[in-house]
Automatic annotation (TrEMBL):
Enoyl reductase (ER) domain sequence ranges: 10-310
A Pfam family annotated for this UniProt entry: ADH_zinc_N
Protein name listed in UniProt: Oxidoreductase
Gene3D superfamilies per the UniProt record, alphabetical: Medium-chain alcohol dehydrogenases, catalytic domain, NAD(P)-binding Rossmann-like Domain
Biological classification of the source: Bacteria, Bacillati, Bacillota, Bacilli, Bacillales
Domain of life per record: Bacteria
The keyword Lipid biosynthesis is annotated on this UniProt entry: no
N-terminal signal peptide: none
Keyword NADP: yes
Organism of origin: Paenibacillus montaniterrae
Keywords (A to Z) from UniProt: NADP, Oxidoreductase
Recorded GO MF terms: NADPH binding; oxidoreductase activity, acting on NAD(P)H
Length: 313
């Protein structure tokens, strides 16, 4: 038997520990002893809405204890990072080798666990803008996990990058991540126009923020909507959008993106960049996974910038 975290509506945190059978790996899956997991606000929010005994969790890092029977993927003893659609908050997981990659020795399990969802989201969203050298990019939610990764990758691509933060303190983090300019306060989003128009906008806020950003797209520009932390509805000025022409609003869902991209190849790239310190995860909190209840609640209340990583005993 192993321990795992499940949803429990009767628990104050809506999460609880439960003993379950050791996972049985399919031929294309490796069995991994999990060392660390990172939390994403989206998965925590989803867990609050799920029925009892659902098993949340996306990002994990650990050691392969049984390689895939197919012979593909990392071998026994390999240090790995990967992601699952659910169930990663567990002592052991069976992970498809297509979602699993070996990590360099210099990369810690803590650093590796931050990469899958936040790193891949940032990477794939930026790719929607094509070659970014000399282009103007605007990123909302800049002090979050996705935002900080996106700023670092965009800056290294040669883009002029503008971010947005809720406070002066958080704006300093965004500057450190490579932003050329930072807009402070979500209500001041219209002031971003002074640095535009933008070839690429990555928005995780939605609502009025998304509506205010669309007119700031350059001709042939793309706005990638990766989330809606403020509101899941937006009133868009269709006359402005249609008469300007050529601009795109792209709906982004990582699960759908992974049907068209190699997660293993791109995780390998992110892991290498992190090893070379060209991509630096900002880890706000490290804690034992026994503190999942408190940590999850604080994450939902936006008390953290960057990433949260839990260590499994």
């Amino acid at each position: 038997m192993i321990r795992t975290i499940v949803t429990d509506p009767l628990s104050p945190s809506h999460l609880a520990f439960k003993e379950v059978d050791v996972p049985q790996a399919m031929p294309w899956e490796a069995l991994v002893q999990v060392k660390t997991v990172s939390l994403n606000r989206g998965e925590v929010k989803d867990a609050m809405d799920q029925e009892a005994s659902s098993r949340p969790g996306w990002d994990f890092a650990g050691i392969v204890i049984e390689p895939a029977q197919s012979g593909q993927g990392p071998q026994k003893g390999a240090r790995v990072v990967g992601l699952l659609p659910m169930g990663a908050w567990s002592e052991q997981v069976a992970a498809p080798v297509s979602m699993l990659v070996e990590i360099p020795d210099k990369l810690t399990f803590t650093e590796a666990a931050t990469l899958p969802v936040a790193g891949l989201t940032a990477l794939y969203a930026l790719r929607k803008g094509g070659m970014l050298l000399g282009k103007r990019v605007f990123i909302t939610g800049s002090s979050g996990g996705v935002g900080l990764f996106a700023h670092q990758l965009a800056a290294q691509s040669g883009a002029f990058v503008v971010g947005m933060a809720s406070t002066e303190e958080k704006s300093k983090l965004v500057k450190e991540a490579g932003a050329d300019e930072v807009i402070i306060g979500y209500s001041a989003v219209s002031s971003a126009s002074q640095f535009g128009p933008y070839d690429l906008i990555i928005d995780s806020v939605g609502g009025n923020t998304l509506a205010a950003l669309l007119p700031q797209l350059a001709p042939q520009g793309v706005c990638v909507a990766v989330g809606f932390s403020s509101s899941n509805t937006a009133t868009i000025d269709m006359m402005n959008l249609v008469t300007s022409g050529g601009r795109t609003l792209y709906s982004f869902f990582l699960g759908e993106e992974l049907t068209r991209h190699s997660a293993a190849d791109d995780l390998r790239l992110l892991a290498q960049l992190a090893t070379e310190k060209r991509l630096i995860p900002r880890i706000e909190v490290e804690a034992p996974w026994t503190q999942i209840g408190t940590i999850a609640r604080n994450l939902l209340e936006r008390k953290y910038s960057g990433k949260v990583v839990l260590h499994i005993d």
